[in-house]
Amino acid sequence: MFGFNHGLPLLNNLCKIFDVILLQEHWLSSNDLCKLNYVDINFTSFGVSAMNSKMENGIFSGRPFGGTAFLVKSNLLKFFTLIEVDAESGRFLALRYCRNPVDLILINVYFPYFKLSSDYTIECCDLIAKLECIVNNFSKCQVLIAGDFNFSINNNSVGYNLFKHILDDYNLQCCDNLNHHLSINHTYHHNSLSNSSWLDHFFVSNVLIDNKTCFDIIDDGSNLSDHLPISLSFLFTDCSPITNSSPILPKPSPVLRWDKADLNKFYLNTSFFLQNIESPNYLLSCNACLCTNHTNLIDSYYENIICALKSSDSNSIPRIPPKSLKNFWSPDLDKLKQISIDLHNLWRMIGSPTQNSLINRERLKAKYSYKLAIREAKNSSLRVNADKINSSFLDKDSSNFWKCWNSNYKNSTNTRPSPLIKGLSNNFDIANAFRSYYCSTYVNSSDDHVASNEFHDLISNPLYSDNNVIAAEVADIETAVNQLSMKKSADPDELFAEHITYSHPSIITHLKLLFNIMLKHSYVPKRFTSGIIIPIVKDKRGDLTDTSNYRPITLSSVISKIFEYFLLNKFSSYLSSDILQFGYKPSTGCSNAIFLLRRVIQHFNDNSSNVYMASIDASKAFDRVNHFKLFSILVQRGLPKYFILILFN
Known about the structure:
The chain is an alpha+beta fold and 649 residues long. Helix content is 40%, strand content 13%. The chain has helices at 4-14, 52-56, 118-137, 158-169, 263-275, 292-313, 331-349, 358-394, 398-409, 427-441, 449-459, 474-482, 497-501, 506-521, 558-570, 590-606, 621-624, 627-636, 641-648, and strands at 20-24, 43-48, 68-73, 80-85, 92-99, 102-110, 142-148, 172-174, 188-190, 195-197, 200-205, 214-217, 230-233, 255-256, 319-320, 532-537, 550-555. A hairpin with a 6-residue loop joins strand 4 (80-85) and strand 5. Helix 3 (118-137) runs parallel beside helix 4 and helix 8 packs antiparallel against helix 9 (398-409). The longest helix is centred in the middle third of the chain and has 37 residues, at 358-394. It is elongated. The relative contact order is 0.08.
């Protein structure tokens, strides 16, 4: 790779073609190995760093180095097992692929570079001994050893002479000569010295090689490394199926770039689409109506609003695939990348001349300009973020400070969900595993007949009635919309808060009418009750394959959030809580509770008293709260009947 950043442009292309990718010289520290997991959403990484001892000895200076890694397609992950890593120097990583009828050991290696000293021989012998030990431990398996060997296959090579006995002892074959139609005869090229050599190799068990085994050297203009990738393809037959018959899952929704949007165009689009929606004003004449036809009209009206907002963004808001955005990337870098690729392809077409070639000089110049531009753009982005962090710190803006800090420096090594949950790797099976677990923790409030009967007695009391339904006003809707948080994930309808904020003011009129109709009918649209559940890791050091180590977070409808803010603002006087409650209340939190606790302890200690404390953590507390008891409390507090019914329904 010659560094993760240099190898990334080509690595993205390789992920579209291959199932397993072996990387050497990624230069990542152990804390940064998580970056490999985000190269492609369909791949999972196994990696080891070569910089652990260097980082542990003090402040790191100089160029990073070494490291090996695998990228494995996630749908094949259940067939792979990690068997050994070189945690000390990061020079090898070994996996086992076991899938009927194939049982294969894959060893990814990075040999030391040649130097005229006994240290080179000692290092090579030590590494070869470790590789031989792995092969011996799995003597019944086929073997594939591949990577950057830093030696050529000839008898004048010291490294090859030390290594070649493994080929004879374990019936391994070098794959360099499998393809007789290669136009390139090297895997490493030093542009400044015009020096080329073949340093990267595949060595595999003889039984794996047949007429369908394909070897190639990959020549791509987006490659910024001085090494050319090599590939080896096998065709394994009679394998067990990867997955059972499961539905095809939809691709993740694209991310909308509101910072690059044509907001004027979006505004005009929403003006056109929203003003063409037919408003069911006649539904306002109803009161406590439960007509099915009317509830269907409410659902239809809501869906028309959603459709209008989504139609408005189609040609005004740029879209990108999830996790594909580098915060420093720009159209200029795209242009330089394409120039580099085009010149490289042209150079290959005319025979790859190196001496006195204008095309070659322009190719190298374009490649250097592309690499330099990436570096400068990244450094510029880091400087801007550092300025933001510094400014937030000086302004004592803790919220913005941690937001900037986490977006740039937070280590997410252990926060990414495991690709295997209870031994399952298929997305559909994993979703069903979470569904089963969350169903098992669900508590049905109706099972408590006492609480259910109490609520129904209260709500059906003839004395408890209200004919005067409050009306939502424009100011109420605007206040609720302003409470929405921007730059959040899309809701189940693929709407963002920005859809409402940047829309034409007619959206306020439509929401006002929708909410008033909902209050009149004590009914919310069916889409309000649907959400996307995202499992979030609870304990980063716990078992990431256990469903109980994940907390479910639900992404709900943006318009339902506006409606909730509206209700909270209107009825906040009824919803007060104890002054000693610090959670889930504005302007209070853990810091207030900790301050009070410390002052209480200090008070009794100052008066020569001992303090004994006990803390209680109720398991599944929110899941076990009975909804009927909550509704009964709201009735007893005097909240209007239509408010209770709209929550209940």
